[in-house]
Specification:
The protein is α/β, with parallel strands linked by helices. It has 14 helices and 15 strands. It has a six-stranded mixed beta sheet with strand order 2-3-1-4-5-6, with helices on both faces.
Amino acid sequence: MTEIDPALVLPDEASDADRERALRAGLAEYDLADDDLALLDGVEGGERLEEAARALPVLAIIGRPNVGKSTLVNRILGRREAVVEDKPGVTRDRVSYPAEWSGTRFTLVDTGGWEVDVAGIEARVAEQAEVAIGLADAIVFVVDATVGTTDTDEQVVRLLRRSGKPVVLCANKVDGPAGEADAFALWSLGLGEPYPVSALHGRGTGDLLDAILDVLPEVSAHGVLRPEGPRRVALVGRPNVGKSSLLNKVVGAERVVVDDVAGTTRDPVDELVTLRDKQWVFVDTAGIRRRVHQTSGADFYASLRTASAIDKAEVAVVLVDASVKMTEQDTRVISQVVDAGRALVIAYNKWDLMDEDRRPFLEREIEQDLVQVQWAPRVNLSARTGWHSDRLVPALERALDSWDTRISTGRLNAFLGELVAAHPHPVRGGKQPRILFATQASTRPPRFVIFTTGFLDPGYRRYIERRLRETFGFEGTPISISVRVREKRRR
């Protein structure tokens, strides 16, 4: 005969509060640690994500390729945020960061190098830089003082004058007093005083920032006022699966650079988007390659930035190329999202290209490939044409609702009582562990703690998880179940 804690199966008419009090009283006979008591008293809770940024003045960093724009961005931020490598063309999209100097907060926009008469991906990078100029309140024009003025620099000057925006001239790569003569030669550009700076070593950046604050307006004409708590959505996947194309389609504009070359995106790009009368922050990320330690240079740092973007997001949309069989890389990306504890939606891109004969076989492949994450909502869409992209928001909402779900302690223990009565834990070594009490420790993602008299087999834990999902939903979120074995107090 299976032994079941009688407190787990109280009559149906008993309230959740009565059930919880009865179970808590039964725990008094067991040795509980301080963290157990803190958990039971509700001290432990879900960690809240950072608040959305307020509308701030916008400062754009502009210049030709490889003059040190991203290095200057990192110096102003005080941390290595933008991807930097000693070769031109690393930055491609315009990327925004919150920054602060002397108590003044502003939005800092890093851009790709601007060039004239270029084609292909370089032309689209230059277009993004021009958009950044139009959406900025003030501009820092970065020039390599060791090279001096070039034809491209003079073209940028003409572009800046047409914009009518206030400009601060930064003479970068001045590492010592000997290089200041090169910086003063930049007076010829007609943009006022050049500020000699070494973005790499930090020399002169304080004077540059003081000059920037003098031209930044108090009230931004271009800053975006974000509402409280827009949900953050990270678009992740291996390179060239259509993440940037999907962001552009959702935004309704060419927000990020798209090219057939894998690895076009380097820095995470976030954009405020309104979908179905609700605002979201979509974050385009660099493609996750096979293994981070096998990458180098810009690709290595791009992979780190993508991992950070997943951690800062609330839900991740993992894009998978439906035109090819799912790869180990795709599985690794999904595992990375689950391990980070983020809500998950899987989007099969390029679905509109599948012929009717191929689709039934693909459905069976998907069932096999996603057997570990059958709980994740799946959307079949086309990022290029927007086909079925309207199905993305309902899937995101379902995943986030599950991510935020909390089950009352009484209801949770009533569920476990019925579960144990129907399918008791197997006897191991002549003993059968008994479930004493369970509580949900936190949300985002949901985490459950079960107090027992013995160890629960991994298979039985998976059974509990499966039944939790069947009973309470939890569609689109990982859930965690931990077991704390406690013994009776010695009399």
